[in-house]
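User: Can you recover a sequence for this backbone? Please restate the input before giving your answer.

Assistant: Of course. Working from this structure:
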């Protein structure tokens, strides 16, 4: 690409091209959104500029900004307001999924720590993710979290529930003048719309509303694409895991309504979502799921080995999922990261199901 001869001629050619491109840009107006059809009529550039200015003006955060978020009270999630005098500068993301969502909004440089690295980082943001200090490969504790000197701790709600485990409670962090943002996707009765709520609110908190709105548009397009390829027949599934002692447990998924909401896009449903506690293989035989899923996470037992155990278990051969070998491996972060990667997970599952 870089030639050492006839530099003067090349510079002249480049200069000429710049003037030509500038002239074309002036006549064609400002760039259209990536999703806008190329067949639309080109509008006047002055009108476009005026519209863009209005959008920019409307998207600016005025501080102090108060948003309704969450804390726990007697074991239940309740509303708690968080007030920001300015955009946070030092953020600890308590899970990989929370950090990935920040990266998607253009906020990598605000993250001073991440933990719970249990899944694959998407290729398109892998280099950005490498810039973030890792506080712990697993779940991070309160002391290490505070040691990163954050002005905001954000992420999965379950890691804010206990004063002695996880990042500390919302109230204890707030008492130290550390703001908190619990992903609404990870609290009781969450739905897919809670993801859009989180993105919108993060856009306001960090004054990146334009980024947030654009990303929501992308995700909603993926949501529609998944709905369009949904199974015509309901597929009922059950989750399972390896206990590590030679036995296999059945995971009910109670409370994971965000995951259920996303799975329902392709008409696949958790049969056990209203069950309590860890369930037995006898229960699995009783409900007879059409499909079964197991999550893969860093440091965990190889799910393929666990699947081999199931397929070899004579007691379970009457189960449709086992009889028809409809057992699927899912990435832990995609589903239990409670972020935008839920779409990647459901898309991959739809591929596995040949939808």
């Amino acid at each position: 690409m870089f030639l050492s001869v006839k530099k003067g001629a090349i510079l002249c050619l480049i200069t000429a091209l710049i003037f030509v491109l500038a002239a074309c840009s002036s006549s064609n107006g400002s760039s259209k959104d990536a999703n806008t059809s190329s067949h639309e009529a080109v509008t006047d550039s002055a009108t476009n500029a005026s519209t863009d200015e209005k959008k920019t003006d409307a998207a600016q955060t005025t501080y102090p900004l108060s948003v309704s978020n969450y804390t726990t009270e007697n074991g239940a999630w309740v509303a708690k307001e968080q007030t920001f005098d300015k955009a946070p500068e030092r953020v600890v993301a308590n899970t990989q999924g929370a950090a990935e969502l920040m990266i998607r909004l253009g906020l990598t440089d605000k993250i001073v720590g991440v933990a719970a690295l249990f899944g694959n980082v998407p290729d398109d943001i892998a280099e950005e993710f490498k810039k973030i200090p890792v506080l712990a490969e697993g779940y991070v504790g309160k002391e290490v979290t505070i040691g990163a000197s954050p002005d905001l701790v954000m992420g999965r709600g379950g890691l804010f529930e206990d004063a002695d485990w996880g990042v500390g409670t919302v109230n204890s962090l707030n008492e130290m003048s550390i703001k908190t943002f619990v992903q609404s996707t990870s609290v009781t009765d969450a739905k897919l719309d809670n993801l859009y709520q989180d993105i919108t609110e993060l856009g306001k908190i960090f004054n990146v509303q334009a980024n947030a709105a654009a990303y929501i548009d992308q995700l909603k397009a993926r949501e529609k694409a998944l709905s369009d390829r949904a199974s015509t027949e309901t597929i009922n599934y059950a989750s399972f895991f390896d206990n590590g002692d030679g036995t296999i447990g059945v995971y009910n998924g109670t409370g994971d309504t965000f995951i259920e909401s996303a799975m329902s896009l392709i008409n696949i449903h958790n049969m056990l979502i209203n069950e309590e506690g860890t369930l037995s293989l006898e229960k699995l035989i009783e409900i007879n799921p059409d499909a079964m899923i197991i999550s893969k996470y860093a440091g965990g037992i190889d799910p393929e080995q666990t699947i081999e155990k199931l397929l070899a278990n004579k007691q379970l051969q009457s189960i449709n999922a086992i009889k028809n070998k409809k057992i699927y491996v899912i990435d832990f972060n995609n589903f239990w990261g409670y972020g935008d990667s839920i779409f990647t997970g459901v898309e991959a599952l739809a591929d596995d199901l040949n939808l």
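That completes the design. Residues 144 and 172 are 15 Å apart (CA to CA).
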